[in-house]
Amino acid sequence: MIGTVIYYVLLPAARLLRALRDAFFTCRKIVLLAKSTSTQIEGVFAATSERSVPEEQEALLQQWLEEGAGNLPASESVPVEGEVSVALSSDWLEGSELLMTSLSDLNSAPEVTWCAGQQLTELHALASSEPQDHELAELAKLPVEKTVAVAGSAPWAAVVPQTDHQVAGCAALDVGVQNEDPAVLAWSLASEEETVPTDPPAWPIQNVVQFYPFPTEVPYHEILWRDWEDLSAQPCVPEQVSKNTPLFEFRVMSYNILAQDLVEQGVDLYLHCHPDILKWNYRLPNLLQEIQHWDPDVLCLQEVQENHYWEQLEPKFKEMGFACFYKRRTGTKTDGCAVCYKHSRFQLITVSPIEYFRPGLGILNRDNVGLVLLLQPLLPEGLDPEAVSPLCVATTHILFNPRRGDIKLAQMALLLAEIDKIAKTTEGSYYPVILCGDLNSVPDSPLYKFIRNGELFYHGMPAWKVSGQEDFSQQLYSRKLLAPLWPSSLGITDNCQYVTLCQPKKSGRRKYSRDFLLQFHFCDVACERPPQLVLLEGVTDAKPDRPAHWLKPAAMVEDPDPQPFIPRSSGIIQHGLNLTSAYSHFLPQRGRPEVTTMPMGLGCTVDYIFYSAEPVENGKSGGRRLYQDGALKLLGRLSLLSEDVLLLANGLPNHFYSSDHLCLLASFGLEISSLREACQGSDNQPVASFCARLNFMLLPSFGASHG
């Protein structure tokens, strides 16, 4: 009697676990086959055709154990394999296109079905009676059950029955069917799919853990879904973007795509990943598909391997309509940065690659690089090309080492000095600037605040504190930043400007003619006898008399309104670009911080898109400078994910995101100055209609829809 009770109590649990296991095998194989080209299938799953299907299932089971069940306590294990019925709903969309498809367009998701109604009915009937003493004695003789922990529910025990058939839809399924391909088996059972009860009945047995149905695996596209945030009309923005304001709209993407050489050099960082998804032949199509889907007008890439760029990436980007520039890291490094722009939307004015390595300078002895471009937006025919301002785009990959914040600041100062040179107008102002890349610094770190607030007092600061990546405060000795941070021979001022540009020559300077020197003939210093001068009568005892008509030279007149001067040893660095972040670094819906990467399973933000804005007058909040949109307006952005969401997808990289970083994407609008007054607030219907048509023409791809 007691054996029958245990059998019916734990039979559904064992079936559910086996059902989920085979569903995992089937879904993964379908997705990977759908994502792979015909030439790639051989390297992923077709190679398994040489062994039998049970061997393939065993290998996949071992992979699943390593990724999921391997995290169970040592006292717990997974039941033995058995037959199972798996059903997949129709219209199931495979591949990473799931991430790009609206949820409303998905008819259904994978479902694991099992026949449990009849067993539950019998179970409750048997459980209503209390077990007798002799039955408990028989229970003690039974083998120990195997315990499995289910995410989101209490642990449950399972005794795997020895059976030669499995109930599916209350009908017997022959064992021979299990020897078929799992995908074929799943589709053959789709017609027998049943609805799984969501709320289990009350559990009448005391001191026994209640059984919860095993949760169905959530599809990756639902876990990793990223929303598009429209910021063009928000109540918190002081100055709204009028519908009649003509804007040149464009999208900017920043993406650290993870160089393959770095993957192979740091294998220990990716032990959580299946080896197949780390192969370049798998990652490249994923990366290209993601970039092609979001269709940015400006693309900034980091960790771009040189041979992959010239042989694969640049030819593909040219097919997509991009003009590309690449800068490899110095020394023996094999990766670098790239900036690509749609030649149908922008025209190049100038490009300036930056090398941060400077021989002989210990603070600039690393091989990181950057790129700065000045682009002219292209307007439709009939509009003045100079009606819209040029755009400065810069990207970089700052040093990773968390202990060397001094090097990070020096590299950023060089980049800002180059931007200052490229983006400065003849009037002394700046063109709109977009600075993006992997800065290896977390939000609200000193380096982040320096970029956003335009000022940083660094003297005496521990070097590890600059980026905020790790806390080394417990160490007995830590490097401290001392002023000046870099030598004057670098040619960069503490205002992050080149010396030759910030100190223009004055007219008449260094013209030491006779007349110029005679102006100082009767100055105060010249009319005083030096105390060390040997007194010689008739020679050095004479004191000149200052004539009444003598005027003080203009060069010696004090400036009544001198400019504030910051000495080189003050320990303060500044810049005047007025940059703010396109992202808020926090997800209010989830109450968690945004994440752009997950090194060693810990989520953090190190990738940014900064853009030019106008500081609010007397606007500061908690030491942060407040900004509002100027000529360059932030219109939208692609939302980021939180750490807990990425953990559900086994971190980064995974089957759908083939880099250890998430891409950043933001939409901007540049005002067209000559038409702004004509379009804003116009009550004239023809003028308003013209402006509406103009805005449509100025959209990316001239009216193409970007979802």
Automatic annotation (TrEMBL):
Gene3D superfamilies: Endonuclease/exonuclease/phosphatase
Keyword field contains Phosphoprotein: yes
GO molecular function, one term: 3'-5'-RNA exonuclease activity
Residue intervals passing through the bilayer: none
Residue ranges annotated for the Endonuclease/exonuclease/phosphatase domain, each copy included: 253-661
Pfam family, one: Exo_endo_phos
Keywords: Phosphoprotein
SUPFAM superfamilies: DNase I-like
PANTHER family for this protein: CARBON CATABOLITE REPRESSOR PROTEIN 4 (PTHR12121), PROTEIN ANGEL HOMOLOG 1 (PTHR12121:SF28)
Family: Belongs to the CCR4/nocturin family.
Name this polypeptide is given: Protein angel homolog 1
Source organism: Calidris pygmaea
